[in-house]
Write a structure and sequence with these properties.
This protein folds into two domains: about 20-85 and about 160-250, Rossmann fold (3-Layer(aba) Sandwich), CATH 3.40.50; about 95-160. Helix content is about 35%, strand content about 25%. The chain has seven helices and nine strands, in the order βββαββαααβαβαββα. The chain has helices at about 60-65, 100-110, 115-130, 145-160, 175-195, 205-210, 245-265; strands spanning about 15-30, 30-45, 45-50, 75-80, 85-90, 165-170, 195-200, 215-220, 225-230. The strands form two sheets. A six-stranded mixed sheet has the order 5-6-7-3-8-9, with helices on both faces. The longest helix is centred in the last third of the chain and has 21 residues, at about 245-265. It is globular. The relative contact order is 0.19.
Length: about 260
């Protein structure tokens, strides 16, 4: 398993680009402008949160990056081109196959490529150990809590060791205690596999705890209006949430979000 401890990450300004969105626009049904002239550079090793009110195009941006939909105008480019295993996606709902075991659910990205389970069983087991579910490989989704199901979904996205993981409000439906725990675990997982993350959220607090870059978007049309840097080094622990530094960053992000909401009104 590739490792890149967060303490070894290059400073924000010196990381090489991984993906760029240039003049990207997306229009639905001929006249509904979801995104307009969006510019975004995501660098290798970034944890970028897309923060903004409903309807600002955060999820649309993720769908464009994932290739599920295509831009009406503009360009999305991967540095060095996109490989078949460069991308993992975690949706708001775990979207697990109820008839399959935990291990079989995590195997799915390999299965879709025609790779037998026996060939990658060690990768599946290793990834499940990273999310703390090594003892649940043979369990079924109905036997898991909501937080455990989301861990399986994250493991499935990470098992191929992608360069970039897209996460669309994965913790929104969870209780606060579980959400905090999964925030902590996600940072540890990112450190363990050395990936880049783009994370959609409505939560100022979550964006500040997780991210080193917060991209604030406004709606009608969806666009980037601010970018904030959270320069607190990783690893971050529970005490960061009660620090003066955290409070300062959350105020700045909250002010930017309020401006975005005002522009969308």
């Amino acid at each position: 398993m590739k490792t890149m401890p967060t303490s070894e990450l290059k400073p924000l300004g010196s990381r090489p680009p991984l993906l760029t969105m240039s003049h990207v626009e997306k229009t639905f049904n001929g006249d509904v402008v979801a995104l307009k002239d969006m510019h975004l550079t995501v660098n290798d090793g970034d944890f970028v949160s897309l923060l903004g009110p409903s309807g600002c195009g955060k999820s649309t941006a993720l769908r464009l990056i994932s290739g599920l939909i295509h831009p009406t105008r503009g360009k999305i480019a991967w540095e060095g081109g996109q490989g078949k295993d460069d991308l993992g996606v975690v949706f708001q709902e775990p979207t697990l196959m109820p008839w399959a075991t935990v291990a079989e659910n995590v195997w799915l990205p390999f299965r879709l490529k025609g790779v037998p389970f026996a060939q990658v069983k060690d990768d599946v087991a290793e990834t499940l150990a990273l999310v703390g579910l090594e003892k649940f490989q043979d369990s079924y989704p109905r036997e898991l809590s909501g937080g455990m199901k989301m861990r399986v979904s994250i493991a499935r996205a990470m098992v191929t060791k992608p360069r970039l993981i897209l996460m669309d409000e994965p913790f929104a439906a969870l209780d606060e205690i579980t959400r905090f725990k999964l925030n902590n675990d996600l940072l540890e997982l990112k450190s363990a596999i050395g990936c880049t993350v783009i994370f959609v959220t409505h939560s100022v607090f979550e964006s500040v705890f997780l991210s080193d870059r917060i991209v604030v978007m406004a709606a009608r049309p969806g666009r980037v209006i601010h970018e904030l840097h959270v320069d607190t080094p990783y690893p971050r622990h529970a005490d960061f949430r009660t620090s003066a530094e955290y409070a300062s960053h959350t105020r700045a992000a909250s002010d930017a979000l309020q401006e975005a909401i005002g522009e969308a009104a």
